[in-house]
């Protein structure tokens, strides 16, 4: 099952007690990192997260607090003797900034493979490096620059029914292949299909991450049914609403409203403004809006 850690919850600039927003998702001993602000490798180390396990990096957009930690992270990976390629996905408009950041990395001992995602069109792709049953989908957000939200779907194998397999005379050595979705041929020539020894497919685990955006109905649709919805909430003061609308951000209350519409099981707030020193002060109000909200802190962890 995926293990989630918010490596940081801050927006704009790192603070003495708050790293910049980034999400570390580990599954099957491999990890996806979403965003890479300044000092990300330090935050990951502090919370016991191994950078050697990162196989995929997802960038939401190319503002400094989401990408300027990239050279430091890549160099740290190189110093850990990494040789396997790293795949980085980003909005297509980030290409110039990405190439500029790469110039200060020098020669790395591993290949960095950049993948450009459409800025204005939702797409999905399979994250085979992590798990062939992991699908990642994007949503174009509404910010001052092109920005993407991400949903990760961890599909589950159907429940295996050993009694069915035994009744059909299927050797134990073939059970794994059937559970993986393959048909098998027995010595007597019978072909056994996976559906004969498995139950209905189970609902996938869904994780959704959106930050640096105006609130809009499409986010609720994108996050529908999420087991965990991680969403920005820069301020809790409602009088900041006009300012947030102008800058392409949202309030904590906006995030709660979207989570409720999405029927999310849990909401973690993140990307707090540096001026929002005590987001916990709004907890009572936010719990009334969405009872499953958490005023997240750096290092927040959860196994889904």
If strands are numbered along the chain, what order do they take across the biggest sheet?
6-5-4-3-2-1-16
For the largest beta-sheet, the strand count, sense and barrel status come to:
7 strands, mixed
Count every beta strand, where a strand is a DSSP E run of 2 or more residues.
16
- Give the count of helical stretches: 10
User: Radius of gyration, rounded?
Assistant: 21 Å
Distance between the termini: 6 Å
Structural account:
About 25% of the residues lie in helices and about 25% in strands. The model has no long low-confidence stretch (mean pLDDT about 95). With about 300 residues, it is α/β, with parallel strands linked by helices. It contains ten helices and 16 strands. The termini are close together. The longest helix is centred in the last third of the chain and has 11 residues, at about 250-260. It has helices at about 40-45, 65, 70-80, 95-100, 160-165, 175-180, 215-220, 240-245, 250-260, 285-290; strands spanning about 5-10, 20-25, 30-35, 55-60, 85-90, 110-115, 125, 135-140, 150-155, 185, 190, 200-210, 230, 265-270, 295, 300-304.
């Amino acid at each position: 099952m995926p293990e989630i850690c918010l490596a940081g919850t801050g927006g704009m600039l790192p603070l003495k007690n708050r790293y910049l927003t980034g999400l570390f998702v580990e599954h099957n001993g491999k990890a996806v990192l979403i965003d890479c602000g300044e000092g990300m490798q330090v935050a990951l180390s502090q919370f016991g997260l191994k950078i050697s396990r990162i196989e995929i990096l997802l960038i939401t957009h190319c503002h400094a607090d989401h990408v300027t930690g990239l050279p430091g992270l890549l160099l740290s990976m190189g110093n850990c003797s990494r040789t396997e390629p790293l795949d980085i996905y980003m909005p297509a408009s980030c290409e110039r900034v990405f190439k500029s950041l790469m110039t200060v990395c020098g020669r790395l001992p591993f290949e960095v493979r950049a993948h450009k995602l459409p800025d204005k069109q939702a797409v999905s792709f399979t994250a085979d490096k992590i798990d062939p049953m992991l699908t990642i989908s994007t949503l174009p957000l509404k910010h001052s620059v092109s920005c993407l939200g991400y949903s990760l779907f961890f599909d589950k194998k159907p429940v295996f029914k050993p009694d069915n397999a035994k009744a059909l005379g299927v050797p134990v050595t073939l059970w794994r292949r059937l559970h993986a979705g393959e048909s098998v041929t027995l010595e007597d020539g019978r072909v056994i299909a996976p559906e004969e020894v498995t139950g209905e497919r189970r609902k996938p685990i869904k994780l959704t991450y959106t930050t640096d955006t105006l609130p809009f109905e499409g986010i609720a649709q994108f996050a529908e049914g999420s087991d965990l919805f991680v969403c920005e909430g820069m301020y809790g003061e409602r009088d900041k609403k006009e300012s947030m609308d102008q800058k392409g951000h949202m309030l904590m209350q906006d995030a709660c409203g979207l989570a409720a519409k999405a029927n999310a099981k849990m909401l973690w707030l993140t990307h707090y403004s540096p001026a929002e020193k005590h987001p916990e002060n709004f907890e009572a109000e936010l719990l009334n809006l969405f009872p499953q909200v958490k005023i997240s802190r750096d290092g927040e962890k959860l196994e889904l």
